[in-house]
Amino acid sequence: MAYLFQVTIDSTAPHPLADWWADALGWQREPTDEAFIRRMVDEGQAAEADTMLHDGRLVWVVGAAIRHPTDAAPRVLFQRVPEPKTVKNRVHLDVRVGPENVDGEVARLTARGAAVLHHGQQGPFRWVTIADPEGNELCLT
């Protein structure tokens, strides 16, 4: 049996981090159902403190998600946690941009707040490990 899954990334500021990753991957933010959120607050099933405005849209404070434009890949959820990242990730994403695009993508993403952590090579294969603005690692190959 095959299972569906999503990747969840802890974050102290999930909405800006979801924006960063959507741009990094060429993905899209998952739309927010503002009417649903408002109804939950109006019915007392959620508090105003559970919501916030992000880019002029009413969103849940606790998280934001992104999807591949064709829905062909797993959803990535950015979930709010109170503590910042303190140690190396045990799991990270490898983003295949093509060998001819690695340097350009590293430059583009560092200009948007990423940090270069490591340049690696094994035989003819090379990669660059970077960290997103909250320190989560990813590799560009």
Descriptive overview:
This protein is of the alpha+beta class. Helix content is 22%, strand content 35%. It is built from three helices and ten strands; from the N terminus they run βαβαβββββαβββ. Strands 1-6-5-2 form a four-stranded mixed sheet, with helices on one face. The longest helix has 12 residues, at 14-25. It is elongated and about 60 Å long. 19% of the residues are buried.
Feature tags:
141 residues; alpha+beta; 4-stranded mixed sheet; 3 helices; 10 strands; 35% strand
Strands side by side in the biggest sheet: 1-6-5-2
Report Rg: 17 Å
Helical residues, percent: 10-25%
Q: From N to C, what is the helix and strand string?
A: EHEHEEEEEHEEE
Please summarize the sheet with the most strands: 4 strands, mixed
Low-pLDDT parts are none
Percentage of residues in strands: 25-35%
Q: Outline, from the CA principal axes?
A: elongated
Q: Based on helices, strands and strand pairing, what is the structural class?
A: alpha+beta
On the 0 to 100 scale, the average pLDDT is: 95
**Number of E-type strands:** 10
What oligomeric state do these chains adopt?
single chain
Please, how many helices? 3
**Distance between the amino and carboxyl termini:** 30 Å
